[in-house]
């Protein structure tokens, strides 16, 4: 699949260097603001991209049109979060097909049981035997065991890319996948929430933790949160209970903790589903949620439409958008850059993250909605 004409390849690589520093968009507002000199970048579909003009697209397309990529998407569960990532991938797959003539066969398979590692391994082996070009994996499996699975697949010609994984927990030379497209759970999630707690509480207050299943994500996020609040002796974690990443268990955990700690100031649900469950528990006990002046602050993490709606309704105080749309876009771009155009790519690629509250929720909601409404 790598371009074989040396002269054309050099030209394509030189032109495509802009990809590494530019984004892309097909929004109506950008299309309306396109100047006359830029309008040649518009495609027949009406979308406008920022990867050069039509001449650029034609030169790349001459070498890539008709290329087919078989890509498998293997998240650890079927959920709103992973659905957003998949739709983010759709936006990039459409761009590659629209502009460069690349055909992508994309298959998603999630375990029927949350985080079932055996099911994921079977899926990877099946797709490898079918000659898939690339498999995108997020797994709760043992690190060394999954590395062995990845090495076996790649030895048979199927490249493995990890996503939504806390690569910061391991040395880069231990990562056997081609690349990890994710975010830093320690500093770009847990630490951010700890900083937010310190700011909102002025460095003093009681905190409850509603935590997910033991594993990579929960460990890294907690380490980041603890590092942030350790700078504030007045912040105290007074209770913690597992919510296993689902809303009903998050609500049950919060109910138990609130009964024992009625004077709590801040609840951190490690993911958004558990945080929304905590909101329901606070309301169920007739307690006051944060209104900007007082009440219980509840914060989650993921970047879900349900979370944004809760923020806009004055329920959930804030969440961390961990870049699900961008993870989907970037791992598809990475496969294209590496396996079709022959680029080297970074072993670890972290997408931007941001705290989302009433001040910026509309923009993040619109970006996510754009992805979710993108069909292939």
UniProtKB/TrEMBL annotation:
Periplasmic binding protein domain ranges (all copies): 71-335
Q: Which Pfam families match?
A: Peripla_BP_4 (PF13407)
Record keyword Metal-binding present: no
Q: Which domain of life is it from?
A: Bacteria
Q: List locations, semicolon-separated.
A: Cell envelope
The family database entries (InterPro entries) matched by this protein are listed as: Peripla_BP_I, SBP_2_dom
Arranged from A to Z, the UniProt key words for this protein are: Signal
Q: Quick one: signal sequence residues?
A: 1-25
Q: What is its main location?
A: other
Assigned protein family = Belongs to the bacterial solute-binding protein 2 family.
- The protein here is known as Sugar ABC transporter substrate-binding protein
Please tell me the species this chain comes from.
Halalkalibacter kiskunsagensis
């Amino acid at each position: 699949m790598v371009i074989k004409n040396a002269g054309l390849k050099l030209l394509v690589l030189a032109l495509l260097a802009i990809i590494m520093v530019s984004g892309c968009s097909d929004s109506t507002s950008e299309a309306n603001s396109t100047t006359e000199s830029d309008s040649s970048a518009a495609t027949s579909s009406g979308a406008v991209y920022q990867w050069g003009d039509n001449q650029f697209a034609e030169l790349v397309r001459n070498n890539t049109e008709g290329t087919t990529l078989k890509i498998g998407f293997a998240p650890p569960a079927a959920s709103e979060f992973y659905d957003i990532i998949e739709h983010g991938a759709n936006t990039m797959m459409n761009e590659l097909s629209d502009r460069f003539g690349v055909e992508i066969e994309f298959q998603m398979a999630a375990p029927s049981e949350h985080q079932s590692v055996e099911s994921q391994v079977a899926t990877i082996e099946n797709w490898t035997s079918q000659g898939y070009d690339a498999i995108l994996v997020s797994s709760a499996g043992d690190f060394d065991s999954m590395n062995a699975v990845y090495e076996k697949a790649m030895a048979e010609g199927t490249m493995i890319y990890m996503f939504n994984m806390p690569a910061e927990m391991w040395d880069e030379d231990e990562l056997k996948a081609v690349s990890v497209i994710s975010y830093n759970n320690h500093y770009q999630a847990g630490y951010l929430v700890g900083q937010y707690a310190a700011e909102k509480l002025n460095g003093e207050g009681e905190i409850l933790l509603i935590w997910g299943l033991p594993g990579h994500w929960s460990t890294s996020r907690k380490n980041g949160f603890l590092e942030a609040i350790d700078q504030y002796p007045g912040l105290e974690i007074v209770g913690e209970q597992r919510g296993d990443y689902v809303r009903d268990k998050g609500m049950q955990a919060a109910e138990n903790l609130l009964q024992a700690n009625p004077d709590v100031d801040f609840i951190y649900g490690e993911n958004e589903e558990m945080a929304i469950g905590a909101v329901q528990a606070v309301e169920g006990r007739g307690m006051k949620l944060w209104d900007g002046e007082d009440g219980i602050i509840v914060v989650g993490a993921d970047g879900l439409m349900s979370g944004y709606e809760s923020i806009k309704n004055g329920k959930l105080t804030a969440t961390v958008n961990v870049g699900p749309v961008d993870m989907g876009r970037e791992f598809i771009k990475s496969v294209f850059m590496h396996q079709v155009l022959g680029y080297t790519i970074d072993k670890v690629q972290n997408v931007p993250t941001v705290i989302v509250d009433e001040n910026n929720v509309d923009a993040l909601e619109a970006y996510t909605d754009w992805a979710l409404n993108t069909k292939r």
